[in-house]
């Protein structure tokens, strides 16, 4: 269900021409950003919490080996098992082996971006299992064979009419006369199908918002409760989590939770926040008989100690997506892989390589809103600029862009030539644009004039005016 291409430019053009998508994105803008602002206004200490959360994650990353080994020891002591997987292929094979060990047929799955990252649904289906997404949004896009378009609201790109159409196409027992015009009716329809899946599943697969080294617990945050049913009803639970999700203590987890829901959905706390430690014990009324945690690296160790290590503080709240003007214009599928928006534009090149994703760092206006709202204070604009430099240094990027940058560097590196070129350019454009004061079309500037007019220069260059008023430089 992953997008077939990583080429942001081509995907973005298609997204801008997609009228249903543009309508869905327009509706989205009035939601989470407004709710986040209101939730933060009710919490005067929010900025202090951001500092505390950053310090917690930095300490965990600086001692990642220690905390991961502590987490493993606690999981084993509680009766669980930990599997270390270097890459996606190893993680997929481990999950398949465990499902075969359990004699599984049906597998329920809670929403997990790591599951998307390793393409676990495709792997399970190819191995003969039936994976069923239980998060409503993930279930809808599974029916449509699509990738998530947002890390917390995966079906945000769809209208309710498109959802109803998907239900009618895939739910064979759905009466033709049954109305599906309202969200509640569609929810009831999905619940009827998913309830049976919960009751018959042999294995449940979840992600984890955090791993707690102190107790060996996993933390799941949802608003639907589907993850709780996924992890407690089947005989076996498999948790798939990336290594940077570990935090040292329960107190640290509580601090991060105060940041997570407010930044993501504008809630003070998500409806379901569940801590799980090991398999079912003798006196427990429910829970899995077998509990397995898969710890996935998949390129994250390479990021430690480097210029992109701070990206590993990300708690997947989606705030950077919700406030990004580029994401708001093209949606998540344009980014070509699992992680969209500013965080994806940094994380994807680090995980799968810059060679095939060199246009992603350019999918940003560098306005800084992503860093401004990030609860972990991740310097996303700085990292995007670094990736742009890396892509250029490695010979990446379109040839016209590279040629243009080379020409600009040649001129900008020679002040006399820069002043001459800009002075002539301003005078010529000023004369050509004198009649209307703007250009609706301009050769070489179509990226601007395709969507807005370009103002004609009104006078001389800034440097010329500065020299006139303050004297020439000595």
- Poorly predicted regions are 1-5
Query: Strand order across the biggest sheet?
Result: 1-10-7-4-2-3
Largest beta-sheet characterization: 6 strands, parallel
The top-level CATH class of the largest domain is: Alpha Beta
Indicate the percent of residues in helices. Answer: 40-55%
User: How much strand?
Assistant: 5-15%
Question: Count of helical segments?
Answer: 23
CATH topology of the largest domain: Rossmann fold
Task: Compute the number of structural domains.
Answer: 3
By helix and strand content, what is the structural category?
Answer: alpha/beta
Total E-strand runs: 12
Q: What's the short story on this structure?
A:
This protein is of the alpha/beta class and 474 residues long. Residues 1-5 have low confidence and may be disordered. It has 23 helices and twelve strands.
Structure description:
The chain is of the alpha/beta class. It has 3 domains: 264 residues, Rossmann fold; 84 residues, no CATH class; 64 residues, no CATH class. The chain is 50% helix and 11% strand. It has 23 helices and 12 strands. The strands form 3 sheets. A 6-stranded parallel sheet has the order 1-10-7-4-2-3, with helices on both faces. A 4-stranded mixed sheet has the order 8-5-6-9. Strands 11-12 form a two-stranded antiparallel ribbon. Helix 4 crosses helix 13, helix 10 crosses helix 11 and helix 17 packs across helix 19. The longest helix has 18 residues. It is globular, with a radius of gyration of 26 Å. The N and C termini lie far apart (63 Å). 40% of the residues are buried. GO terms for molecular function: 4 iron, 4 sulfur cluster binding; metal ion binding. This is Lactate utilization protein B. InterPro entries: 4Fe4S_Fe-S-bd, 4Fe4S_Fe_S_CS, FTHF_cligase-like_sf, Helical_ferredxn, LUD_dom, LutB/LldF, LutB_C, NagB/RpiA_transferase-like.
């Amino acid at each position: 269900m992953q997008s077939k291409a990583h080429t942001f430019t081509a995907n973005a053009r298609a997204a801008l021409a997609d009228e249903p998508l543009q309508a869905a994105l327009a509706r989205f803008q009035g939601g989470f950003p407004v709710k986040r602002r209101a939730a933060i206004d009710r919490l005067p200490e929010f900025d202090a919490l951001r500092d505390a959360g950053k310090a917690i994650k930095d300490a965990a990353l600086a001692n990642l080996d220690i905390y991961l080994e502590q987490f493993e020891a606690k999981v084993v002591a509680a009766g669980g098992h930990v599997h270390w997987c270097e890459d996606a292929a190893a993680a997929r094979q481990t999950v398949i082996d465990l499902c075969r060990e359990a004699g599984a047929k049906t597998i329920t799955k809670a929403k997990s971006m790591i599951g998307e990252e390793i393409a676990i649904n495709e792997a399970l289906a190819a191995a003969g299992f039936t994976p069923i997404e239980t998060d409503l949004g993930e279930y809808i896009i599974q029916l449509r064979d699509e990738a998530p378009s947002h890390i917390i609201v995966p079906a945000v790109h769809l209208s309710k009419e498109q959802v109803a159409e998907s239900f009618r196409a895939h739910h064979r027992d759905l009466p033709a006369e049954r109305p599906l015009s309202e969200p509640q009716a569609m929810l009831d329809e999905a619940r009827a199908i998913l309830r049976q899946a919960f009751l018959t599943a042999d294995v449940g697969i979840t992600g984890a918002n955090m791993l707690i080294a102190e107790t060996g617990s996993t933390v799941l945050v949802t608003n639907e409760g589907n993850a709780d049913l996924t992890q407690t009803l089947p005989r076996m639970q498999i948790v798939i989590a990336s290594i940077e999700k570990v935090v040292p203590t329960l107190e640290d987890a509580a601090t991060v939770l105060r940041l997570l829901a407010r930044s993501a959905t504008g809630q003070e706390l998500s409806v379901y926040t569940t801590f799980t430690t090991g398999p079912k014990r003798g006196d427990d009324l429910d829970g899995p008989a077998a509990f397995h945690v898969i710890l996935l690296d998949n390129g994250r160790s390479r990021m430690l100690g480097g210029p992109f290590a701070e990206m590993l503080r990300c708690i997947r709240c989606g705030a950077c997506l919700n406030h990004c003007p580029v994401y708001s214009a093209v949606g998540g599928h344009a980014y070509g892989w699992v992680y969209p928006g500013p965080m994806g534009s940094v994380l994807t090149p680090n995980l799968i390589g810059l060679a095939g994703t060199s246009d992603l760092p350019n999918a940003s206006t560098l306005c800084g809103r992503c860093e401004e709202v990030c609860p972990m204070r991740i310097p996303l604009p700085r990292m995007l600029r670094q990736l742009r430099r890396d892509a250029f240094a490695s010979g990446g990027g379109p040839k016209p862009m590279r040629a243009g940058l080379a020409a600009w560097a040649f001129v900008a590196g020679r002040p006399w030539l820069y002043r001459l070129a800009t002075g002539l350019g301003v005078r010529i454009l000023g004369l050509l644009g004198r009649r209307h004061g703007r250009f609706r079309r301009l050769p070489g500037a179509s990226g601007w004039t395709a969507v807005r007019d370009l103002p004609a220069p009104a006078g001389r260059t800034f440097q010329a005016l500065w020299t006139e008023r303050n004297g020439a430089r000595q």
